[in-house]
Amino acid sequence: MYSFIARQPIFDQDMHTVAYELLYRNGLSNAFPDVSSEYATSQVISDQFLGSPLQSVTDNHVSFINFPHKMIIDRQVFSLPPESVVIEVLEDAQPDDDLFSAITELHHKGFTVALDDFTMEECWARFMPYVDILKFDIRKHSAELIAQYISRNKLEKMTLLAEKVESQEEFQAFKSLGFSLFQGYFYRRPEILRNKKLALNITWLIELMREVNQQRIDYEKVGNLINRDVSIAYKFMRYIKNIRYQTSFPVEVNTMSLRDIALYIGDHELRRFVSLVSLYSLDDEKPVELYKNSVIRGRFCELIATELHMTYLEGDAFLCGLFSLLDAILDHPLHVLLEQITLSPRIHAALVDSKGVLFEILDLARHYETMQWLDVHRLGNELGLNDPQIIKIMTSAIHWADESY
């Protein structure tokens, strides 16, 4: 399963790329598909900010993301890291009190806000102190009309972006008007990128949706549901890293279980996360075997920690096994994927440095999967486990995963 994204560079007066606008695509056709703007934006967030490493798409540049009116006033924007994005308010957004309240909150929380295809209507005047970038479609408005508006409203100090620039002459003309950012075919057309996509287990996603919409959420059940699917768990950890600096998260978040993290962020934030990942995920595609193997590994590692009376390691052991196949699932190096989330040093040591007791447990699982029985026996002995114990634990882990898939 793949996700598709088009990126169009945004360049400065020296013709250096400084950002990319990310545009939803559902295939290799370089055109916006027939979907709602809410669906498109949710896809971009879920695939690019909660799935594949963002730097593989943006080369560590800032991303411009289109946001429709409803997603802004519903505060879906806050699922993104403010230092990595520019929030583009779509041109059909209603400049009402709800939008004004949301944009002022975005401004105070450190987000950069742009008005896309700016219409130059007076109803936007009160928004100007909280807006950072004005994007002008130069195919819709003449340079003279735009210059008059900028001068009349004293906007010379605001960042101005000319989009749909198609010639050197247009670039020079708007550069002379004080525009500092540019976008258009003159510089480069949007290019389509394809990335491996995290497929979600629909059964568990529906259960999670049902649970978080209860009047009283059972956080123990929520934690178990997140634990049972590697895609949901990884997206949840990406989401937590995105929002942790907007909340009063404790420094020791990397020692908390998924259940405790869900409880800490509370009902509202949890429902926001589930709505983001569920909007685009309800399709008929089945998870591949790698997903099930990830769950088996996670449960096996957790049960081994229990068997060794290392209860303090159970949560880390589960996540270590669960995330150990992410590189195979997403076709990115594991250390790059793990940089996108916050995990304990023990998990990082096991998955990246091949060190520590968690690595020894994970190594036991890997050798069992490949039926290297002499190594299984040797590794079990080193951990203080006999063969019947290991077989019983793996059988239990497989049965547990069978309930998920």
Automatic annotation (TrEMBL):
Q: What sequence ranges are listed for the domain HDOD? A: 198-389
The protein depicted here goes by the name EAL and modified HD-GYP domain-containing signal transduction protein
Q: Which Pfam families match?
A: EAL
Task: Name the species this protein comes from.
Answer: Mangrovibacter plantisponsor
Q: What InterPro entries does UniProt report for this protein, alphabetically?
A: dGMP_Pdiesterase_EAL/HD-GYP (IPR014408), EAL_dom (IPR001633), EAL_sf (IPR035919), HDOD (IPR013976), RNase_Y/CdgJ (IPR052340)
Source superkingdom: Bacteria
Which segments constitute the EAL domain? 1-204
Q: Which residues form a coiled coil?
A: none
